[in-house]
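Subject: Protein record for review, amino acid sequence with C-alpha coordinates
Why sent: The fold of this protein is of interest and is recorded here as C-alpha coordinates.
Enclosed: The protein record, placed directly beneath this head.
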Amino acid sequence: MFARSSEERSGGQPACKRNAAEPATCATPDDEDARRARKATANRILTTLKAVLNRAFHADRVSSDSAWRKVKPFGKVDEAVVRYLTVIEARQLVATCPVAIKNMVQAALLTGCRYAELTRLKCANLNTDSGTLAIRLSKGKVRHVVLTDEAQACFAAWTQDKSPSEYIFLRADGKVWGASHQKRPLDEASSRAGLSPAITFHILRHTHGSHLAMSGVPMGVIAAQLGHADTRMTEKHYAHLAPSYVAQTIRANFPALKFSEDTKIVPLRKPRLTSSSPSVS
Protein backbone atom coordinates (compact mmCIF):
# COMPACT_ATOMS: atom_id res chain seq x y z
CA MET A 1 0.00 0.00 0.00
CA PHE A 2 2.90 2.35 0.72
CA ALA A 3 6.23 2.76 -1.07
CA ARG A 4 9.09 1.41 1.00
CA SER A 5 11.80 3.79 2.12
CA SER A 6 15.49 3.23 1.49
CA GLU A 7 15.81 2.28 5.17
CA GLU A 8 13.23 -0.50 4.83
CA ARG A 9 14.84 -1.79 1.65
CA SER A 10 18.19 -2.01 3.42
CA GLY A 11 16.86 -4.12 6.28
CA GLY A 12 16.14 -1.39 8.83
CA GLN A 13 19.27 0.66 8.22
CA PRO A 14 19.04 4.12 6.64
CA ALA A 15 20.80 4.77 3.37
CA CYS A 16 24.43 5.82 3.86
CA LYS A 17 25.54 9.29 2.86
CA ARG A 18 29.13 9.19 1.79
CA ASN A 19 31.64 11.92 1.10
CA ALA A 20 35.15 11.40 -0.14
CA ALA A 21 36.60 13.20 2.88
CA GLU A 22 34.08 11.97 5.46
CA PRO A 23 33.32 8.54 6.94
CA ALA A 24 29.92 7.00 6.27
CA THR A 25 27.20 8.82 8.18
CA CYS A 26 24.64 6.00 8.19
CA ALA A 27 23.33 4.74 11.52
CA THR A 28 25.35 1.90 12.99
CA PRO A 29 24.07 -1.23 14.73
CA ASP A 30 24.87 0.57 18.01
CA ASP A 31 22.70 3.56 17.19
CA GLU A 32 19.70 2.17 19.06
CA ASP A 33 18.38 5.60 20.02
CA ALA A 34 18.07 6.71 16.40
CA ARG A 35 16.44 3.44 15.31
CA ARG A 36 13.97 3.48 18.20
CA ALA A 37 13.13 7.13 17.54
CA ARG A 38 12.39 6.41 13.88
CA LYS A 39 10.13 3.51 14.82
CA ALA A 40 8.31 5.61 17.42
CA THR A 41 7.77 8.32 14.81
CA ALA A 42 6.42 5.74 12.36
CA ASN A 43 4.00 4.50 15.05
CA ARG A 44 2.67 8.00 15.66
CA ILE A 45 2.18 8.60 11.94
CA LEU A 46 0.44 5.22 11.59
CA THR A 47 -1.95 6.08 14.43
CA THR A 48 -2.92 9.36 12.76
CA LEU A 49 -3.22 7.74 9.34
CA LYS A 50 -5.46 4.95 10.67
CA ALA A 51 -7.70 7.48 12.37
CA VAL A 52 -8.19 9.36 9.09
CA LEU A 53 -8.82 6.17 7.11
CA ASN A 54 -11.25 4.83 9.73
CA ARG A 55 -13.19 8.07 9.57
CA ALA A 56 -13.43 7.73 5.79
CA PHE A 57 -14.53 4.11 6.15
CA HIS A 58 -17.29 4.92 8.64
CA ALA A 59 -18.46 7.74 6.36
CA ASP A 60 -18.86 5.14 3.56
CA ARG A 61 -16.16 6.76 1.48
CA VAL A 62 -14.10 3.56 1.52
CA SER A 63 -15.60 0.13 0.93
CA SER A 64 -13.28 -1.82 3.27
CA ASP A 65 -10.84 -1.20 6.14
CA SER A 66 -8.97 -4.47 5.75
CA ALA A 67 -6.01 -2.84 3.96
CA TRP A 68 -4.87 -0.88 7.00
CA ARG A 69 -6.49 -2.87 9.81
CA LYS A 70 -3.81 -5.56 9.38
CA VAL A 71 -0.91 -3.10 9.61
CA LYS A 72 0.67 -3.37 13.05
CA PRO A 73 2.91 -0.77 14.75
CA PHE A 74 6.49 -1.49 15.73
CA GLY A 75 6.67 -3.18 19.10
CA LYS A 76 8.73 -2.33 22.18
CA VAL A 77 9.82 1.08 20.89
CA ASP A 78 8.70 2.83 24.07
CA GLU A 79 10.37 0.49 26.53
CA ALA A 80 13.02 2.10 28.69
CA VAL A 81 16.58 0.90 28.28
CA VAL A 82 17.97 0.42 31.75
CA ARG A 83 21.32 -1.27 31.22
CA TYR A 84 24.32 0.84 32.14
CA LEU A 85 27.80 0.31 33.56
CA THR A 86 28.77 1.03 37.12
CA VAL A 87 31.85 3.16 37.66
CA ILE A 88 33.90 0.03 38.42
CA GLU A 89 32.62 -1.77 35.30
CA ALA A 90 33.41 1.28 33.16
CA ARG A 91 36.99 1.32 34.46
CA GLN A 92 37.34 -2.42 33.85
CA LEU A 93 36.11 -2.08 30.26
CA VAL A 94 38.45 0.80 29.46
CA ALA A 95 41.39 -1.10 30.97
CA THR A 96 40.77 -4.09 28.69
CA CYS A 97 40.15 -2.15 25.48
CA PRO A 98 42.71 -2.26 22.66
CA VAL A 99 44.67 0.97 22.36
CA ALA A 100 43.02 1.95 19.07
CA ILE A 101 39.50 2.03 20.50
CA LYS A 102 40.24 2.83 24.17
CA ASN A 103 40.15 6.62 23.72
CA MET A 104 36.83 6.49 21.87
CA VAL A 105 35.27 4.30 24.57
CA GLN A 106 36.41 6.82 27.19
CA ALA A 107 34.95 9.63 25.09
CA ALA A 108 31.59 7.85 24.85
CA LEU A 109 31.44 7.40 28.62
CA LEU A 110 32.46 11.00 29.28
CA THR A 111 30.12 12.65 26.75
CA GLY A 112 27.24 10.30 25.94
CA CYS A 113 27.92 10.81 22.22
CA ARG A 114 26.84 8.20 19.70
CA TYR A 115 29.41 6.06 17.90
CA ALA A 116 28.72 7.77 14.55
CA GLU A 117 29.12 11.19 16.17
CA LEU A 118 32.49 10.27 17.67
CA THR A 119 33.84 8.84 14.42
CA ARG A 120 33.12 12.16 12.65
CA LEU A 121 34.70 14.36 15.33
CA LYS A 122 37.54 16.58 14.18
CA CYS A 123 39.85 18.68 16.31
CA ALA A 124 38.01 21.79 15.15
CA ASN A 125 34.89 20.50 16.93
CA LEU A 126 36.59 20.96 20.31
CA ASN A 127 36.18 24.39 21.89
CA THR A 128 38.71 24.64 24.70
CA ASP A 129 37.45 28.07 25.78
CA SER A 130 33.90 26.89 26.54
CA GLY A 131 34.83 23.29 27.29
CA THR A 132 32.36 21.89 24.76
CA LEU A 133 32.19 19.67 21.70
CA ALA A 134 30.28 20.81 18.62
CA ILE A 135 28.36 17.82 17.26
CA ARG A 136 27.16 18.58 13.74
CA LEU A 137 23.69 17.22 13.03
CA SER A 138 21.55 17.13 9.91
CA LYS A 139 20.29 20.31 8.20
CA GLY A 140 23.20 22.36 9.53
CA LYS A 141 22.17 22.08 13.19
CA VAL A 142 24.79 21.81 15.92
CA ARG A 143 24.56 20.29 19.40
CA HIS A 144 27.02 21.48 22.03
CA VAL A 145 28.09 18.73 24.43
CA VAL A 146 29.42 19.93 27.77
CA LEU A 147 32.73 18.44 28.90
CA THR A 148 33.63 17.85 32.53
CA ASP A 149 37.10 18.75 33.76
CA GLU A 150 38.16 15.12 33.26
CA ALA A 151 36.76 15.08 29.74
CA GLN A 152 38.45 18.38 28.85
CA ALA A 153 41.80 16.99 29.98
CA CYS A 154 41.28 13.84 27.87
CA PHE A 155 40.31 15.72 24.72
CA ALA A 156 43.19 18.15 25.17
CA ALA A 157 45.58 15.18 25.20
CA TRP A 158 43.89 13.50 22.23
CA THR A 159 44.02 16.63 20.06
CA GLN A 160 47.49 17.75 21.02
CA ASP A 161 49.79 18.36 18.02
CA LYS A 162 46.91 17.76 15.59
CA SER A 163 45.58 20.23 13.04
CA PRO A 164 41.94 21.40 13.24
CA SER A 165 41.02 19.35 10.14
CA GLU A 166 42.28 16.03 11.55
CA TYR A 167 39.96 13.41 13.03
CA ILE A 168 40.27 12.97 16.78
CA PHE A 169 39.75 9.19 16.68
CA LEU A 170 41.32 6.94 14.07
CA ARG A 171 41.87 3.21 13.78
CA ALA A 172 45.26 1.62 14.36
CA ASP A 173 45.93 1.73 10.60
CA GLY A 174 45.23 5.47 10.52
CA LYS A 175 41.90 5.12 8.69
CA VAL A 176 38.52 6.40 9.87
CA TRP A 177 36.18 4.15 11.82
CA GLY A 178 33.43 2.56 9.74
CA ALA A 179 29.90 1.41 10.51
CA SER A 180 30.87 -1.94 12.07
CA HIS A 181 34.58 -1.62 12.86
CA GLN A 182 33.94 -1.14 16.58
CA LYS A 183 32.10 -4.42 17.22
CA ARG A 184 34.94 -6.94 17.34
CA PRO A 185 37.36 -4.96 19.57
CA LEU A 186 34.52 -4.02 21.92
CA ASP A 187 33.31 -7.63 22.08
CA GLU A 188 36.82 -8.79 22.95
CA ALA A 189 37.25 -6.09 25.60
CA SER A 190 33.87 -6.99 27.14
CA SER A 191 34.90 -10.65 27.32
CA ARG A 192 38.19 -9.83 29.03
CA ALA A 193 36.38 -7.52 31.48
CA GLY A 194 33.82 -10.24 32.29
CA LEU A 195 30.89 -8.18 30.98
CA SER A 196 28.13 -10.21 29.35
CA PRO A 197 26.39 -9.66 27.02
CA ALA A 198 28.99 -7.61 25.23
CA ILE A 199 28.95 -3.85 25.70
CA THR A 200 27.99 -1.57 22.81
CA PHE A 201 28.38 2.16 22.29
CA HIS A 202 24.65 2.39 22.88
CA ILE A 203 25.22 1.12 26.45
CA LEU A 204 28.13 3.54 26.91
CA ARG A 205 25.80 6.39 25.91
CA HIS A 206 23.17 5.20 28.39
CA THR A 207 25.82 4.92 31.09
CA HIS A 208 26.51 8.64 30.73
CA GLY A 209 22.82 9.52 30.88
CA SER A 210 22.08 7.13 33.75
CA HIS A 211 24.80 8.51 36.02
CA LEU A 212 23.62 12.05 35.33
CA ALA A 213 20.06 11.04 36.29
CA MET A 214 21.19 9.26 39.46
CA SER A 215 23.10 12.38 40.47
CA GLY A 216 19.90 14.43 40.29
CA VAL A 217 20.58 16.28 37.03
CA PRO A 218 17.27 17.64 35.61
CA MET A 219 15.76 15.74 32.67
CA GLY A 220 15.93 18.85 30.47
CA VAL A 221 19.70 19.12 30.99
CA ILE A 222 20.21 15.43 30.20
CA ALA A 223 18.06 15.79 27.07
CA ALA A 224 20.22 18.69 25.86
CA GLN A 225 23.44 16.79 26.57
CA LEU A 226 22.31 13.66 24.72
CA GLY A 227 20.65 15.50 21.86
CA HIS A 228 17.04 14.43 22.48
CA ALA A 229 14.45 16.62 20.75
CA ASP A 230 12.50 16.94 24.01
CA THR A 231 12.38 15.35 27.46
CA ARG A 232 9.92 12.56 26.57
CA MET A 233 12.59 10.08 25.50
CA THR A 234 14.87 11.23 28.32
CA GLU A 235 12.20 10.62 30.95
CA LYS A 236 11.35 7.27 29.39
CA HIS A 237 14.93 6.08 29.79
CA TYR A 238 16.15 7.82 32.93
CA ALA A 239 13.30 9.16 35.07
CA HIS A 240 13.14 5.93 37.10
CA LEU A 241 16.81 6.41 38.06
CA ALA A 242 16.44 9.99 39.25
CA PRO A 243 16.07 10.78 42.95
CA SER A 244 12.40 11.45 43.64
CA TYR A 245 10.22 12.58 46.52
CA VAL A 246 8.21 9.34 46.31
CA ALA A 247 11.26 7.07 46.55
CA GLN A 248 12.90 9.11 49.29
CA THR A 249 9.69 9.21 51.35
CA ILE A 250 9.12 5.44 51.09
CA ARG A 251 12.70 4.62 52.06
CA ALA A 252 12.61 7.04 54.97
CA ASN A 253 9.34 5.78 56.44
CA PHE A 254 8.96 2.07 55.76
CA PRO A 255 9.92 0.10 58.91
CA ALA A 256 12.90 -2.24 58.91
CA LEU A 257 11.53 -5.79 59.09
CA LYS A 258 14.97 -7.16 60.05
CA PHE A 259 14.60 -10.63 58.53
CA SER A 260 17.31 -13.07 59.53
CA GLU A 261 18.04 -16.57 58.29
CA ASP A 262 18.86 -17.86 61.79
CA THR A 263 15.64 -16.63 63.37
CA LYS A 264 14.14 -19.38 65.55
CA ILE A 265 10.46 -20.08 65.05
CA VAL A 266 8.59 -19.99 68.38
CA PRO A 267 4.93 -21.05 68.53
CA LEU A 268 2.57 -18.24 69.49
CA ARG A 269 0.79 -20.42 72.13
CA LYS A 270 1.19 -23.81 73.72
CA PRO A 271 -0.75 -26.72 72.21
CA ARG A 272 -3.81 -27.89 74.17
CA LEU A 273 -3.69 -31.16 76.11
CA THR A 274 -5.66 -33.98 74.50
CA SER A 275 -7.26 -37.01 76.12
CA SER A 276 -4.23 -39.09 75.20
CA SER A 277 -1.93 -36.71 76.99
CA PRO A 278 -0.73 -37.75 80.48
CA SER A 279 -2.56 -35.99 83.29
CA VAL A 280 -0.74 -33.62 85.54
CA SER A 281 -1.02 -34.43 89.29
Observations:
- Confidence is low (pLDDT under 50) at residues 1-15, 24-29.
- The beta strands are 126-127, 132-136, 142-146.
